[in-house]
Amino acid sequence: MAHQSGIGVSDKLTARFRDAHSEPVRVVQAQIVGESVELTTTVPQQGGFIDDLAQVPAMLSSTEPSYLLVRLDSDKWLFATYVPDAAPVRSKMLYAATKATVAKALGDSYFAEDMFGTTPSDFSPEGYRLYKAHEDSSAPLTERELEMERIRDLESHAASAPSIDSRRSHVASAQYPLDPNAEAALRDFARGTINFVLLAIDAASEVVVASRAESLQSHAELAACIPKDLPSYVLYWFDSSTTLFIYSCPTASSVRNRMVYSTFRHGLIVTATQMGINVHIRLELDDPQEITPDWLEEEVRSRAQPEPGAAAAASATKPKFKRPMPPNRRPRTCAPGT
């Protein structure tokens, strides 16, 4: 089973996890190797769940992400994703984009808890207790969580009251949340440390993921970075003062994908704006190969806002419209000597 990133789950991992249900296995560790998620190692049960967690931090590298499937003290499992801060950006994006694929391939129903961490200690007994305390707390919702609650309410309302006005409101407001790596990529983009972010929708987990985040060396590289058969969103610094939002929707993509990406396009721009990214120019196209340096230059030049005062100056120098002469009337001429 493969995600749009092309990463699948190996048969060996699938078989080992299936066998682990009937064996005294506490942890199954997996990592992305090449084009698939492979079994790394397993750890047997030695005590209770909390006690056995003490073995997990020693399994983790300071630079390499991994998935940890940890049996709870029941027939259910914890799906943990470990992505260290020192991991390469591409690895972070691949693990975020492939997580839903792994869970679905192994069986979503087996996983009762979902945990994310960036340091080995996050998966220690104490780290797990902190995670549970946070999950079980009755702390007030953050602004982001409140916004997501409002979005879910809007979606529910739109489903139950399918009037034209409610559908328009729903489409204009619809947003999928960003996964952690997509958020990190947009923060880097807002700071100007990278100039290109390619975003995609992971429909299975209903999140926006960053497929690529890097700095391109020239406009000529842009077209090759955008999928030719799948819709995508692009944020790109055209220059130090102009940000482009490109919505690419190839004609070869499925009708469903085209509808989903069209629906959530505006919401993504709203999210980017809230993160400090001022989108200056929005472009739409159905073939990424249209993007050439000359085409970009022309689009930016034709859509760029004039400098303050430039419009007034242009108006002052523009010839005034000359009223056409009434029919059958000769132009007036001055009499000789006047």
UniProtKB/TrEMBL annotation:
Gene3D superfamilies: Severin (3.40.20.10). The keyword Cytoplasm applies. Transmembrane segments: none annotated. One of its GO terms (cellular component) is cytoplasm. InterPro entries: ADF-H, ADF-H/Gelsolin-like_dom_sf, Twinfilin. Signal peptide: none annotated. Its main location: cytoplasm. Keywords: Actin-binding, Cytoplasm, Cytoskeleton, Repeat. GO terms for biological process: actin filament depolymerization; barbed-end actin filament capping. Belongs to the actin-binding proteins ADF family. Twinfilin subfamily. This is Twinfilin-1.
